[in-house]
Design brief:
By secondary structure, the protein is mainly alpha-helical. The chain is about 65% helix and about 0% strand. Strand 1 (about 305-310) and strand 2 form a beta hairpin.
Protein backbone atom coordinates (compact mmCIF):
# COMPACT_ATOMS: atom_id res chain seq x y z
CA UNK A 1 0.00 0.00 0.00
CA UNK A 2 1.49 3.31 -1.04
CA UNK A 3 0.87 6.47 0.91
CA UNK A 4 1.38 9.94 -0.52
CA UNK A 5 2.94 12.19 2.11
CA UNK A 6 2.17 15.92 2.08
CA UNK A 7 4.66 17.89 0.05
CA UNK A 8 7.16 19.90 2.02
CA UNK A 9 7.08 23.65 1.80
CA UNK A 10 9.52 25.08 -0.71
CA UNK A 11 12.58 26.68 0.91
CA UNK A 12 12.00 29.94 -0.94
CA UNK A 13 8.41 30.11 0.26
CA UNK A 14 9.44 29.34 3.81
CA UNK A 15 12.14 32.01 3.71
CA UNK A 16 9.62 34.48 2.35
CA UNK A 17 7.18 33.75 5.14
CA UNK A 18 9.90 34.15 7.77
CA UNK A 19 11.00 37.44 6.21
CA UNK A 20 7.42 38.73 6.14
CA UNK A 21 6.97 37.95 9.83
CA UNK A 22 9.35 40.78 10.62
CA UNK A 23 12.25 41.03 12.99
CA UNK A 24 10.10 41.99 16.00
CA UNK A 25 7.89 38.90 15.67
CA UNK A 26 10.93 36.65 15.54
CA UNK A 27 12.26 38.02 18.82
CA UNK A 28 11.82 35.74 21.87
CA UNK A 29 9.08 36.74 24.31
CA UNK A 30 11.56 37.61 27.05
CA UNK A 31 13.36 39.98 24.69
CA UNK A 32 10.07 41.71 23.83
CA UNK A 33 9.21 42.15 27.52
CA UNK A 34 12.69 43.46 28.31
CA UNK A 35 12.62 45.85 25.35
CA UNK A 36 9.19 47.15 26.42
CA UNK A 37 10.41 47.81 29.99
CA UNK A 38 13.55 49.52 28.71
CA UNK A 39 11.55 51.61 26.23
CA UNK A 40 9.28 52.77 29.05
CA UNK A 41 12.21 54.01 31.12
CA UNK A 42 13.80 55.67 28.10
CA UNK A 43 10.50 57.47 27.44
CA UNK A 44 10.35 58.58 31.08
CA UNK A 45 13.96 59.76 30.83
CA UNK A 46 13.09 61.85 27.77
CA UNK A 47 9.90 63.51 28.97
CA UNK A 48 10.14 63.02 32.75
CA UNK A 49 11.71 66.30 33.91
CA UNK A 50 9.44 68.33 31.62
CA UNK A 51 6.29 66.85 33.18
CA UNK A 52 7.55 66.94 36.77
CA UNK A 53 5.00 68.86 38.86
CA UNK A 54 7.61 70.49 41.13
CA UNK A 55 11.25 71.43 41.23
CA UNK A 56 12.94 68.33 42.72
CA UNK A 57 15.27 70.51 44.82
CA UNK A 58 12.60 72.85 46.19
CA UNK A 59 12.33 72.60 49.98
CA UNK A 60 8.91 73.51 51.28
CA UNK A 61 9.31 75.55 54.51
CA UNK A 62 5.89 74.48 55.80
CA UNK A 63 6.08 71.90 58.57
CA UNK A 64 2.95 70.23 57.29
CA UNK A 65 4.74 69.41 54.02
CA UNK A 66 7.40 67.31 55.76
CA UNK A 67 7.12 63.53 55.25
CA UNK A 68 3.69 63.63 53.67
CA UNK A 69 2.45 60.31 52.40
CA UNK A 70 1.27 59.85 48.80
CA UNK A 71 -1.69 62.09 48.05
CA UNK A 72 -3.36 63.94 45.18
CA UNK A 73 -0.83 66.79 45.24
CA UNK A 74 2.32 64.77 45.88
CA UNK A 75 1.77 61.45 44.12
CA UNK A 76 4.71 59.78 45.88
CA UNK A 77 4.75 61.89 49.02
CA UNK A 78 7.46 64.25 50.22
CA UNK A 79 10.83 64.02 51.93
CA UNK A 80 11.77 65.34 55.35
CA UNK A 81 12.55 68.70 53.73
CA UNK A 82 9.22 68.84 51.91
CA UNK A 83 10.68 67.92 48.50
CA UNK A 84 8.42 66.11 46.03
CA UNK A 85 9.56 62.48 45.63
CA UNK A 86 7.77 62.02 42.30
CA UNK A 87 9.64 64.95 40.74
CA UNK A 88 12.93 63.60 42.09
CA UNK A 89 12.13 60.18 40.62
CA UNK A 90 11.45 61.58 37.13
CA UNK A 91 14.69 63.56 37.17
CA UNK A 92 16.65 60.68 38.70
CA UNK A 93 15.57 58.21 36.02
CA UNK A 94 16.84 60.54 33.29
CA UNK A 95 20.27 61.03 34.84
CA UNK A 96 20.71 57.35 35.65
CA UNK A 97 19.65 56.21 32.16
CA UNK A 98 21.80 58.78 30.36
CA UNK A 99 24.85 57.90 32.44
CA UNK A 100 24.36 54.15 31.91
CA UNK A 101 23.80 54.45 28.14
CA UNK A 102 26.90 56.64 27.70
CA UNK A 103 29.02 54.22 29.73
CA UNK A 104 27.59 51.26 27.80
CA UNK A 105 28.35 52.86 24.43
CA UNK A 106 31.88 53.94 25.41
CA UNK A 107 32.82 50.63 27.03
CA UNK A 108 31.36 48.61 24.13
CA UNK A 109 33.34 50.70 21.63
CA UNK A 110 36.56 50.06 23.56
CA UNK A 111 35.73 46.34 23.78
CA UNK A 112 35.22 46.06 20.03
CA UNK A 113 38.35 48.05 19.17
CA UNK A 114 40.65 46.18 21.54
CA UNK A 115 39.15 42.70 21.01
CA UNK A 116 38.96 42.82 17.21
CA UNK A 117 42.37 44.47 16.84
CA UNK A 118 44.10 41.92 19.08
CA UNK A 119 42.57 38.92 17.33
CA UNK A 120 42.79 40.20 13.76
CA UNK A 121 46.39 41.45 13.88
CA UNK A 122 47.71 38.64 16.09
CA UNK A 123 51.37 38.29 17.01
CA UNK A 124 52.86 40.95 19.24
CA UNK A 125 49.74 43.11 19.05
CA UNK A 126 47.64 40.26 20.39
CA UNK A 127 50.04 39.58 23.26
CA UNK A 128 50.32 43.23 24.32
CA UNK A 129 46.59 43.98 24.10
CA UNK A 130 45.65 40.70 25.80
CA UNK A 131 48.10 41.42 28.63
CA UNK A 132 46.67 44.92 29.06
CA UNK A 133 43.12 43.53 29.02
CA UNK A 134 43.95 40.90 31.65
CA UNK A 135 45.63 43.47 33.90
CA UNK A 136 42.59 45.77 33.82
CA UNK A 137 40.26 42.78 34.21
CA UNK A 138 41.78 41.59 37.50
CA UNK A 139 41.75 45.04 39.08
CA UNK A 140 39.11 45.39 41.83
CA UNK A 141 36.59 47.70 40.18
CA UNK A 142 34.57 49.00 43.13
CA UNK A 143 37.55 49.97 45.36
CA UNK A 144 39.21 51.69 42.39
CA UNK A 145 36.01 53.55 41.61
CA UNK A 146 35.77 54.77 45.21
CA UNK A 147 39.43 55.88 45.25
CA UNK A 148 39.34 57.60 41.85
CA UNK A 149 36.08 59.41 42.47
CA UNK A 150 37.30 60.46 45.90
CA UNK A 151 40.30 62.28 44.37
CA UNK A 152 38.63 63.63 41.23
CA UNK A 153 36.95 67.05 41.51
CA UNK A 154 33.17 67.02 41.79
CA UNK A 155 32.26 68.34 38.33
CA UNK A 156 28.95 66.65 37.64
CA UNK A 157 28.71 63.07 36.43
CA UNK A 158 31.69 63.26 34.03
CA UNK A 159 34.20 61.63 36.44
CA UNK A 160 31.78 58.77 37.10
CA UNK A 161 31.25 58.21 33.35
CA UNK A 162 34.99 58.29 32.61
CA UNK A 163 35.96 55.92 35.42
CA UNK A 164 33.13 53.45 34.74
CA UNK A 165 33.91 53.43 31.00
CA UNK A 166 37.62 52.88 31.65
CA UNK A 167 36.98 49.86 33.91
CA UNK A 168 34.00 48.21 32.16
CA UNK A 169 35.43 47.12 28.79
CA UNK A 170 37.90 44.21 29.49
CA UNK A 171 35.35 41.38 29.85
CA UNK A 172 33.66 42.29 26.57
CA UNK A 173 37.04 42.63 24.85
CA UNK A 174 38.01 39.08 25.82
CA UNK A 175 34.75 37.64 24.53
CA UNK A 176 34.90 39.60 21.26
CA UNK A 177 38.55 38.59 20.79
CA UNK A 178 37.63 34.92 21.14
CA UNK A 179 34.81 35.30 18.60
CA UNK A 180 37.10 37.15 16.18
CA UNK A 181 39.69 34.38 16.42
CA UNK A 182 36.99 31.93 15.34
CA UNK A 183 35.89 34.12 12.41
CA UNK A 184 39.13 35.48 10.98
CA UNK A 185 40.08 32.17 9.31
CA UNK A 186 36.67 31.57 7.71
CA UNK A 187 36.44 31.25 3.94
CA UNK A 188 34.61 34.53 3.36
CA UNK A 189 37.33 36.44 5.24
CA UNK A 190 40.04 34.70 3.25
CA UNK A 191 38.18 35.48 0.03
CA UNK A 192 38.02 39.17 0.93
CA UNK A 193 41.74 39.21 1.59
CA UNK A 194 42.47 37.45 -1.70
CA UNK A 195 40.50 40.07 -3.61
CA UNK A 196 42.76 42.78 -2.19
CA UNK A 197 40.37 44.30 0.34
CA UNK A 198 42.01 46.53 2.91
CA UNK A 199 42.21 45.27 6.48
CA UNK A 200 39.84 47.89 7.83
CA UNK A 201 37.21 46.95 5.23
CA UNK A 202 37.55 43.28 6.12
CA UNK A 203 37.06 44.14 9.79
CA UNK A 204 34.16 46.57 9.26
CA UNK A 205 32.21 44.65 6.61
CA UNK A 206 33.10 40.98 7.20
CA UNK A 207 34.01 40.44 10.86
CA UNK A 208 32.09 43.03 12.92
CA UNK A 209 28.67 42.37 11.24
CA UNK A 210 28.96 38.71 12.26
CA UNK A 211 29.41 39.76 15.89
CA UNK A 212 26.42 42.11 16.17
CA UNK A 213 24.49 39.89 18.59
CA UNK A 214 27.56 39.50 20.79
CA UNK A 215 28.23 43.25 20.75
CA UNK A 216 24.58 43.97 21.57
CA UNK A 217 24.67 41.53 24.50
CA UNK A 218 27.89 43.14 25.73
CA UNK A 219 26.29 46.60 25.49
CA UNK A 220 23.24 45.48 27.49
CA UNK A 221 25.46 43.89 30.15
CA UNK A 222 27.57 47.03 30.43
CA UNK A 223 24.50 49.27 30.77
CA UNK A 224 23.20 47.00 33.52
CA UNK A 225 26.55 47.12 35.31
CA UNK A 226 26.72 50.91 34.93
CA UNK A 227 23.29 51.35 36.50
CA UNK A 228 24.18 49.21 39.49
CA UNK A 229 27.63 50.78 39.94
CA UNK A 230 26.43 54.39 39.61
CA UNK A 231 23.61 53.79 42.10
CA UNK A 232 26.01 52.12 44.53
CA UNK A 233 28.56 54.92 44.24
CA UNK A 234 25.93 57.60 44.85
CA UNK A 235 24.46 55.60 47.73
CA UNK A 236 27.77 55.56 49.58
CA UNK A 237 28.28 59.27 48.85
CA UNK A 238 31.33 59.29 46.55
CA UNK A 239 29.49 60.46 43.42
CA UNK A 240 28.17 63.94 42.72
CA UNK A 241 25.26 64.54 45.10
CA UNK A 242 24.31 67.92 43.65
CA UNK A 243 22.28 66.37 40.81
CA UNK A 244 19.33 64.05 41.21
CA UNK A 245 19.77 60.40 40.30
CA UNK A 246 18.26 57.21 41.68
CA UNK A 247 21.39 56.66 43.76
CA UNK A 248 21.20 60.22 45.13
CA UNK A 249 17.59 59.65 46.19
CA UNK A 250 18.60 56.49 48.05
CA UNK A 251 21.55 58.29 49.65
CA UNK A 252 19.41 61.07 51.12
CA UNK A 253 16.73 58.61 52.19
CA UNK A 254 19.32 56.52 54.02
CA UNK A 255 21.17 59.48 55.54
CA UNK A 256 17.93 61.00 56.91
CA UNK A 257 16.61 57.71 58.39
CA UNK A 258 13.65 57.26 56.05
CA UNK A 259 13.41 53.58 57.01
CA UNK A 260 13.22 54.32 60.75
CA UNK A 261 10.71 57.08 60.15
CA UNK A 262 8.48 54.75 58.18
CA UNK A 263 8.66 56.91 55.05
CA UNK A 264 8.57 53.96 52.65
CA UNK A 265 7.52 56.21 49.75
CA UNK A 266 10.93 57.89 49.95
CA UNK A 267 13.13 54.85 49.20
CA UNK A 268 10.81 52.25 47.63
CA UNK A 269 10.15 54.09 44.30
CA UNK A 270 13.85 54.58 43.38
CA UNK A 271 14.70 51.06 44.54
CA UNK A 272 11.82 49.62 42.50
CA UNK A 273 12.90 51.65 39.45
CA UNK A 274 16.44 50.23 39.69
CA UNK A 275 15.03 46.71 40.06
CA UNK A 276 12.76 47.10 37.03
CA UNK A 277 15.59 48.51 34.93
CA UNK A 278 17.73 45.53 35.85
CA UNK A 279 14.90 43.12 35.08
CA UNK A 280 14.26 44.67 31.68
CA UNK A 281 17.94 44.65 30.73
CA UNK A 282 18.33 41.07 31.98
CA UNK A 283 15.36 39.82 29.96
CA UNK A 284 16.60 41.69 26.89
CA UNK A 285 20.05 40.15 27.31
CA UNK A 286 18.60 36.62 27.63
CA UNK A 287 16.49 37.22 24.54
CA UNK A 288 19.47 38.45 22.51
CA UNK A 289 21.46 35.42 23.63
CA UNK A 290 18.63 33.12 22.59
CA UNK A 291 18.30 34.88 19.23
CA UNK A 292 22.01 34.61 18.48
CA UNK A 293 22.61 31.10 19.90
CA UNK A 294 21.31 28.37 17.54
CA UNK A 295 21.00 25.80 20.33
CA UNK A 296 18.88 28.05 22.53
CA UNK A 297 16.83 29.18 19.52
CA UNK A 298 16.12 25.56 18.44
CA UNK A 299 15.18 24.58 21.99
CA UNK A 300 12.74 27.49 22.27
CA UNK A 301 11.17 26.68 18.88
CA UNK A 302 10.85 23.02 19.80
CA UNK A 303 9.03 23.85 23.05
CA UNK A 304 6.64 26.14 21.17
CA UNK A 305 5.62 23.29 18.84
CA UNK A 306 5.41 20.61 21.53
CA UNK A 307 8.72 18.88 20.77
CA UNK A 308 11.45 17.68 23.08
CA UNK A 309 14.85 19.01 22.14
CA UNK A 310 18.17 18.15 23.75
CA UNK A 311 21.49 19.63 22.58
CA UNK A 312 22.96 16.15 22.10
CA UNK A 313 20.11 14.88 19.93
CA UNK A 314 20.28 15.46 16.16
CA UNK A 315 16.50 15.82 15.72
CA UNK A 316 13.56 16.92 17.88
CA UNK A 317 11.14 14.30 19.16
CA UNK A 318 7.40 14.87 19.55
CA UNK A 319 6.03 14.24 23.02
CA UNK A 320 2.84 14.89 24.96
CA UNK A 321 -0.50 15.68 23.32
CA UNK A 322 1.15 16.70 20.03
CA UNK A 323 2.88 13.36 19.52
CA UNK A 324 1.83 11.82 16.23
CA UNK A 325 0.41 15.06 14.82
CA UNK A 326 1.62 16.89 11.78
CA UNK A 327 3.22 20.19 12.76
CA UNK A 328 1.84 23.43 11.28
CA UNK A 329 3.40 24.96 8.18
CA UNK A 330 4.98 27.79 10.17
CA UNK A 331 7.19 25.28 12.00
CA UNK A 332 10.76 24.98 10.66
CA UNK A 333 11.15 22.44 7.86
CA UNK A 334 13.69 20.38 9.82
CA UNK A 335 11.26 19.95 12.71
CA UNK A 336 8.33 19.04 10.42
CA UNK A 337 10.38 16.36 8.74
CA UNK A 338 11.69 15.07 12.08
CA UNK A 339 8.27 14.82 13.73
CA UNK A 340 6.89 11.24 13.75
CA UNK A 341 4.10 10.33 11.30
CA UNK A 342 0.53 9.88 12.51
CA UNK A 343 -0.22 6.27 13.58
CA UNK A 344 -2.55 5.55 10.60
CA UNK A 345 0.00 6.72 8.05
CA UNK A 346 2.82 4.87 9.77
CA UNK A 347 0.78 1.62 9.80
CA UNK A 348 -0.08 1.99 6.13
CA UNK A 349 3.51 2.62 5.22
CA UNK A 350 4.51 -0.67 6.83
Amino acid sequence: MSVVMPAATEPTATAGKVARRGYWKRLPLKAKVGAAILAFFILVAIIGPSIAPFNPSYQNPSLNASLEGPNAVHLLGTTQSGQDVFSQLLSGIRLTMVLALIVGAAASFLSVVVGVTAAFLGGLWDEVLSLFTNVVLVLPSLPLLVVFLGYLPQSGQTPTIVVLSALSWPWGARVIRAQTLAIRNRDFVAASRETGERSWRVVMFDIVPNEISLIAANFVNTVLYAIGASVALAFIGVADLNSWSLGTMLYWAQSQDALHLGAWWWFVPPGLAVALMGTGLGLLNFGIDELGNPRLRDASTARRFGLRWRPGEPTPVATGPRAGRRLPDRAPAAMRSAAPMPPAVEEGAR
